[in-house]
Amino acid sequence: MLAGEPYIASDPELGKMHLRAQRILHVFNISLPDATEERQSLIHELFGALGADYEVKPPFRCDYGSHIVAGERLFINYDCVILDCNTVRLGDRVLCCLKHGWEKRGIKNPDTEKLMQQLEQPYEGAEMKPLYTAVVTVTPGQEGHARMSGHAESEDGLLALELAMPQELGGRGQGTNPEQLFAAGYAACFHGALALVARKMRVDASKATVTNF
Fold this sequence. Notes:
By secondary structure, this protein is an alpha/beta fold. Helix content is 29%, strand content 17%.
């Protein structure tokens, strides 16, 4: 992917990079609670580039580590997973806080409960029921490889798209691709969060747009 070629996880060079990362992560994730300097040194060795004043809480997982580039004052909370098959760039003062920290069923997180009330959706505590489940089926095209060509269709038929590898990656480019679909989905979700925060702060964001690249 970094070289503009299809990502093949079984590539020998990638295998060596992955093994190196997993060895570093193994030591990192079993480190003692007071081994702060050791963990910082391991993360500095793992990441491709890293600014000053950072903290990553174990356990932490990634594919290669060397594809992760972070700015200053990075904080990553427990149980973070970064799939860095391509370059992952984290800017300055990024906080990744993934879990609220409850342990027992039925215990409600007040921040989540307030958000769900604003969305007028039910909230039952730590064990939340799915509000919506999307079902999409992908069938391969003439190459027998859906990444090269294929068809994606949702269970309700509202989504029906032809898939094709982009010309930049050596494909025909006569259809959309997973990268575009992911970008569209992420941008839509981000815009929803933006609109929610704007409404809370009484800011008109009705004409705001989100471009994901």
